What does this fold into?
Amino acid sequence: MSETNTPALQYRFDGPEDAPVLILGPSLGTTWHMWDRQVPELMKQWRVFRFDLPGHGGAPAHPAGSVTDLAARLLATLDALGVHRFGYAGCALSGAIGAELALRHPERLASLALIAASPRFGTADEFRQRGVIVRTNGLDPIARTSPERWFTGGFAAAQPAITEWAVQMVRTTDPGCYIASCEALAAFDVRAELGRIGVPTLVLVGSDDQVTGLAEARTLVAGIPDARLAVVPGASHLVPVEQPAAVTDLLVRHFSTAWQPAFEPTTGQTAIPPAPVKPVLAAPTPVAPVAEIAPAAMQPEPEGRPDRYETGLKVRREVLGDAHVDRALASADAFSGDFQEFITRYAWGEIWDRPGLDRRARSCVTLTALVAGGHLDELAFHTRAALRNGLTPVEIKEVLLQAAVYCGVPAANSAFKVAQQVIREETTPQE
It folds into this structure.
């Protein structure tokens, strides 16, 4: 066993040095210790590599705002250690990392297990709203509600020590890194690319998972060629913690039977065969059922570069939220449709996407301009946007105080009323 820190990721090895490497990735808010119960069995066949997400478990707090960045940091860490090919099992956010590796770096993967994962985790609005809550209130509200998201009610009641351990894991996470991870999940969407995953894949889900449940698991299995689905009864989101023996057995079976051998081309690089080895899983005892869903047809990739409208629509959704943009577009008709296209293409695709100012600065400018113009309706949803763009309530207050000096006290008085109500709504944790 060895432990160390790297500038990229904090990691730990368990098992014989000459064994093939199997990576276990944690979910958001947890540490590598969520895999403690799997390691003794897995290290009999593999050299188990566990890592912590940035700012988790005492790891260096270097925020990573995209799944692509997290995957790159993992590969950089592995490269420094001389690990070039490996099996990979990731839970939730680390499942997204696994899908990213399978899509962008398939030559590195021998086999893949996606646990409590999804090709798209909820909605971007949900994760950006969580970031607003953490930025305003810290991680305590998230920590207190984690057990109900992660475990079944019976398990949480019967295992108070594990429940408290889960709460403390979240509380000790760096808030900035947690918010960045929320941003990474908000932007993650590989639904249209699942057909290009060509490594043997197991999709594993708890039967009672209310976060990424059976619907999300079936979407993965339907889209990934020859993927298999394993459903663990009596488990919620952190299924490796709640049902450790069942998960261990499923992982051993999958990685023992579906470890794709590497080619040895003259370049010295590894490559995957054109067709993946079909994993064969029998239902372990007492875990049942393990089901199979036929793969879906590949979806064609979009052709050509996106124009400014597509860029603008993406930025508009990231800043204002899917719900707001969907309402605006749905209400457009023959009279207002051209205006919606105009602001999407030029306001959001051109101005908001320019590199000269970051989104925090653009929110400050926008709030001030809306106060000056008395546009209180737009001030309300741009206050929400400012919170999503990283401004705190204190910073928004300072912007409005500055506006009071240069735009007038009456205008700022009205603005404070609007912003105060929005901030209350957006930053009050949901119990």
User: Anything to note?
Assistant: The CA atoms of residues 118 and 290 lie 18 Å apart.
